[in-house]
Amino acid sequence: MDRYLITGFSGFVSRHFLEFLEGLQKRVSVLGLDLVQPDFGSHRLGHIQLGFEKVDLLDRERLEKIIFKFQPNFILHLASYSSVAFSWVNPVLSFMNNTNIFLNVLEAVRSANSRIRILSVGSSEEYGDLLGRKKMFHEEDILCPVSPYAVARVSQEMLSKVYVKGFGLDIVLTRSFNHIGPGQKETFVVASFAKRLVEMKKSGSSFSKLMTGDTSLIRDFVDVRDVVRAYDALLKKGRGGEIYNICSGTGYSLAEIIRQMASILEMQVITEMDKKLIRPSDNRMIIGSNEKMLRDIGWEPKISMKKSLEDVIHYWNQIDR
Amino acid sequence: MDRYLITGFSGFVSRHFLEFLEGLQKRVSVLGLDLVQPDFGSHRLGHIQLGFEKVDLLDRERLEKIIFKFQPNFILHLASYSSVAFSWVNPVLSFMNNTNIFLNVLEAVRSANSRIRILSVGSSEEYGDLLGRKKMFHEEDILCPVSPYAVARVSQEMLSKVYVKGFGLDIVLTRSFNHIGPGQKETFVVASFAKRLVEMKKSGSSFSKLMTGDTSLIRDFVDVRDVVRAYDALLKKGRGGEIYNICSGTGYSLAEIIRQMASILEMQVITEMDKKLIRPSDNRMIIGSNEKMLRDIGWEPKISMKKSLEDVIHYWNQIDR
Fold this sequence. Notes:
The structure is a homodimer. By secondary structure, chain A is an alpha/beta fold. Chain A has 2 domains: 220 residues, NAD(P)-binding Rossmann-like Domain (Rossmann fold); 76 residues, UDP-galactose 4-epimerase, domain 1. The first copy, chain A, contains 10 helices and 14 strands. In chain A, the strands form 4 sheets. In chain A, strands 3-2-1-4-5-6-11 form a 7-stranded parallel sheet, sandwiched between helices. In chain A, strands 12-9-14 form a 3-stranded mixed sheet. In chain A, helix 4 runs parallel beside helix 5, helix 6 runs parallel beside helix 8 and helix 8 packs across helix 10. The radius of gyration of chain A is 19 Å and the shape is globular. The N and C termini of chain A lie far apart (40 Å).
């Protein structure tokens, strides 16, 4: 029986990963770790033997004990302060809760001295600002991180490589692009737009003005349900030490996303830029190539942007009831 | 009057930096920070108004207060757990005492909101293993760090760039190559060889066997007295956001260094490799180009390898008395 240790267990991606596992209809054991209790009461988990421990991953001693006791064969490392915006406000907390926690996971596995496969989740932000130089990011591209968050993720990736080569750990790496999907917190841009548009729709105002950051930014959004399918495939079939882009391969401007959501909601929306929402440095365009995932793992995204946005809007419609 | 804040104050490089400053015969104010008290009792510091505070740079609150109170115009950030070997033994401590302490310095300066020029000292180890691909490292080369220490230094460098571009901090960066010179601790390779050779010489044994790691490794050694002259020049004339190699431009194998020291000491030495001293991954050859320092700053090294080794041997002769 596969044994998954999942960090960042109480988050959005983890919740979808559990649903994915449940869908496999195979008995597995899962131990979740997070700073906060998960809110998974409503989920029926027939095939999953589920445990949870509240732990700060900066507490390495405790982490070592947990890993020694649970003896996972997979570690899905989802824990992250993954907000670029937050990293500009508190670079130290962002760095520690990305790089330092990951280093603690690696050290705990090294001290356990067992063959655990780790999925190190990285970010498309690592590519950084190559506007005009690159249309699409491939795994072998040079990295030019432009935010504290991006630096933390590149550091994590470099540590992974050293632990693979120097200590023989079994780590598969991703650079995951922007996620969308039902259940995402409104601190993320598409969720934030969706929530506010749904509220406007319900208030019945005919004239809807949405305050935004820079909506000309182009991002590659991948549905969280496609993401978790990729993560499980990488844990089982990825090559150790290799990096894989997890992305849709298509870029949408934030303005286009708003337009599509307005269309689904049958609303007229105008946007206005709030300068407070503009970040010190930001990448103009981030689009990834997912050729390697298709070629080596046989994975490609299945969920269309339209379907993702419909489900996101449906989610906020329900929440706001 | 220039005001220098020096971290890693009780170390080898700092001591030589103070001697350099004293040699300038100009009144300056220096505040030293370190975990341990310096051992500078024997130094006459006629022109330097000197203070010291015992502080752990992981204590950001205290660091902020110190910077706010001292109001330096220069920060020479020498603090580092700079041993590659130690980083393989304790990657977490190595990482925290390189990257995290540096991030705290940056945050303290950002919160002080003043125009302080910072020298971020990096390492040639950042270039990593490009054997067969590169004969000599230039500042624009791709970085392939292969040890935890090297990763920590690359992370520090990436953070510097983000703080320059995103927060407007004034940071000049170095990649400093292997140091040699009198006063270096025996945890560093050349000092270790010198100390043991001097001991053998004094014991009068005709047959001297030196246990070593891999002596075929080639490194670019630069005398610490040339290094500190470069650091002061960069604080005063370096371009913000730019990286500068601090190196001799010449590579010596460790075997050749041992041969030269044996010649100075008029000894016959044979070496034997101790497998315990071989590291998990190591760079075969690290030689830097110092063209940028010459072109932009007008700096070049002045002290020959022979002079450096003579002074190192003289130092150990005195210590061992």
